[in-house]
Amino acid sequence: MKKEKEEAILRAFEGLSWEPVKDKVEIELDSKVNRFSTLLFSMKNWKQIYSLLKKSADNGRAIFISNYFRSLDDIRKMIAYLMRSDYVYTLDFASKYYEQFKGHSEQEAENINNVLMNLLQEGILERSPEYLEFCESCEKLQIVGTGDEDDKCDCGSRIFRIFRCSLNKNVKKSILTN
User: Where are the beta strands (DSSP E) in 33-111?
Assistant: First the structure.
């Protein structure tokens, strides 16, 4: 009876394009997955972070992070400026960044952004090559590819950046398989 069950299970897995056991071992041995688990559960707001990452994994949606936090009111003003200026592609970055944090207090949003930035630095999140750069002083706004990331604009002001990120492949698998 036991042998028949094992054979039935093996037959069920024959048609799959992946090997469940090998996949699971690869995920469990991945240092980024281990680091992610350690970091996540050491935070007091881990449920908020996990919820955001799970939503991204489930829907294939990007995660947006800024190099430093600006108030949500400032982001709303930037979105209004972008809408008036017909910057459609850059508006996408700013509006999705805002959507990700709306409903949170300023302090919670800043904490979440800081945690996400830490996850990016740890390699748990991976940046797309393009990011939004905005200088409030001279209103310079552009989508930039990878390159020189000087923190100062030509006018001398600090540049605000929004990065579009995705989860590391194995971290995403880990989240999707709990």
Answer: 63-66
